[in-house]
Fold this protein.
Amino acid sequence: MTFGGRLLSGVAMSAVIAGAAFAQSIEDEIVVTAQRQEQSLQDVPIAVSAFSGNDLQSRQLESFQDIQFNIPNFNFTKSQFTGSTIVLRGIGALAVGASTEPSVSIHQNDVYIQAPRLFETEFFDIERLEILRGPQGTLFGRNATGGVINVITKKASTDAVAGYVDAEYGNYESVKVNGALNVPISDILAARIAGAIIQRDGYTTNLFDGRDIDDRDIYALRGSVRFLPTDNTTVDVVGSYMRESDSRLRSQKQACEEGPLSPLLGCDPNLPRSFGRQDLRGGFLANTSTSTFPLITGNPATSAYGLVSLGAPIYGVTQPADLRTVNHDTRPQYDAEETVFMLNAKHDFEAFSLKLNAGWGNSKISSRQDFDAGVGPTLTRPPVICAPVGLGGLPAVCNLTGGALGPVSFPLSAFDVGITNSSGLVGVIGGNIQDRSTNYRAVDLSIGETDYWSVEGIATSDFDGRFNFLLGVSHAESNGYADYAVATTGLDYFAYVGGTLSAIGAGIPGAATTGYSFYTPYFWNDTDDSFLDSTSVFGEVYFDITDTLKLTGGVRHNWDTKGVRDRGNLLESAGSSVAGVPLSVPPIVPFGTPSVRGLLDANELVQCPSLEIYCANGGRNDFRVVESDFDATTGRALLQWTPTDNVQVYASWTRGFKPGGFNPRTLTALNIPLTFEPEVIKAYELGVKSNIFDGVLQANLTGFYYDYSGLQVSRIFANTSINENIDATVWGIEGEFVLRPTDRLIANMNVAYLNTEAGDFSTIDSRDPTQGAANAELFSDVTNGSDCVVTRNAGAPALIGTVFGGPFVGLNPIVASPFSVCSALRANIATINLATGGTRGYAVVDGIPVNVEGNELPGSPEFKISGGLQYTFGMMEGRYEFTPRVDAFYQSSMWTNIFNDVQDTIDGYGYMNAQVRFQPAEGNWYVRAFIQNVTNEDALTGAFDVGSGAGNFQNLFVLEPRRWGFGAGINF
């Protein structure tokens, strides 16, 4: 048998993308199922690329990050939280949230994979990888607007005992071993088992403790059984398992720019990307400032309990500029697990066949990482904390922070939901402490789990006449949760100090000694349930108009029901004066409280009648319980002309659809729509596939035009992601070529041009909310790290610095500096206008909208080119073969979001791999040496903007560095 590539995660890697009409394989012929039936790759009248297992190994395609170097208009990057993004022809997963879906549908062995772990896995024991570009809604379903990826794994065979072992060792102490064993049990039954192990040291040096991070420790297993009950019946059952536990980084680096807007935004968005220090006054640390407590409590004396002053910059340790060097005071922890079972059954009748594809999967992920990617400033405990009670001392807080005799340390809340099997949402006040430090600390957590299953039945005719058809029905369901949290020493400190001061102010006996706290002490985007129920029917008809002209028409109808149960938590009880909260729900709880879930929501399964966050029947933060239907009809029409056996021309129209979803619960009080709308794409494609010069050259060309309505895009606002819909147009040209002048020489190349434009749409860029407007002032809300903007009439004086006398003197703390309370500004802006004669026109807004019309879509470089060259030399009178191969790639610059600002650009870069292989001409073993990323290119593949509430920094996703090593394998 031949070596079948290396795919590390059984199910997560099940992906093949559907799209342009190109054959990337360097094999003589490859059979694909791009149209849900077996066809030669060059016969398929759509834009589809495919790689055999041998292709994957020859080109060093070990993961989806590598695939992007070999497919036109295909981009892959790690994304924020624990996901990844594939962008095909400008169409990708640009929305963020538990109810969002990818735009590229992932399948393994023709089974839809709801939550694939593409980021963690690598290829092993693969038969082929199919990538279809362009919407494939008719045959593959609703969320295939960008394309389809189908990973076909090797199955058990009744032919003979066979297998392989491949092992390699490289720099970073990298060890990879994978292999497979096929065993026929009888003439009608066989079994196959395959596995892979990946271990290596970290790519990144952490200056904080001198240890490397971003290492790998992964293993995967896959087993398959084939049953042949009749000559016309094949049943395959495949099960796979993948596990990772290491210090993998979700983002490799964090960028921040020090500039004029740093005090308010944390990092200045109007400067080129750099690795400066974040001014923590623009983020969560503002909650611990000396100005915060008086503004919240109304008592100026409470300023003595503040940790820092807003009057001067608050900087941590300077960050290194090198992309492979960081300074993290928290070691990352990454755990992923995936289990998948698949069934493929097919029976051929005389004139048609029936096929059943079914699967079940479970995907789990948990990742904890240094949120601010740095070492924060040293914090000094205010002396008043440990003073006698009569002098304002807080004994409970003193003990919590190290006691009167020290050493002083500030506790950081552990995420006690879903991690410690607690459900209290109390963190440090409930005794759940993940660490202590004298420095400001910030740690985040991304965690989730999804269970899913699907079943699909397809009937395909094989009549001798001009007419044939395909009919299918499918059903899929999924349930899961996806939570994101951020804990900081600043948030914790504000919760327990502010809560204790509030208890003292309320006259609670012994409050200073007992200790009280606001809740919850950390940010928690809490999606307890997200579900999908989807049913569809589909079909296509195929009519041979003439011997060389064929018409295809297809239609699909989808019935989708989606729902969520979610909320967002961030110091809800600090807003103790909110109307509607019953007096029986206390705003503070004593230290040691094991749970506050009942105080947040009395019945977590039922939503209060009110649409507000706070309601009398539910507590301080009621779960939203909502569902919605998203039904749609998609289809395609295709005309295929085959003038000769070696040339095919086709033209198609396709309609694609992706359902809408739900914006996070935390935004309902901010007049943000609860839902975002579906996407609809109308795609037009013209392609030519050819084999010319007696098969020496394979040349395929495709042109396409997309009219996109409702493209789902995300932006950060009010400490979370919201999704909006924009229109867009996309067009481009792709070419793929394979040249085989001799049996020993193979060359391949692909070229792509892509033009993407957003339509007329205005929204707020929360990273730069004023947009430089002359009549706008930026205020940073010290109560939650969010921002607001005060606009004024032309010629009117700025609000900041204005002092009012008489009855308006109480407004002075609000308007005395750019660090303010936006809710108070909104509540008093009419009074302020009245006090100034009503001529200045002060107004409080979330920001100045910016129109993105004409901007390019994220992840869409205008130009890409790649190529490979290999030659096999005969040695020792032809008894041995020596094969060197080189692959090179270049892409132009691209953007990371729809605003196309200076910090949103990703520079163009080149990439190169090289490999040599030595083996006997008739033997079953080989040895090889390889180099990946020959030039050690430290290129970015993407970036994520966290927004001003968290400090306005960017998380960067970086290519893996240069890897080299040696390998050997044997086939038997």
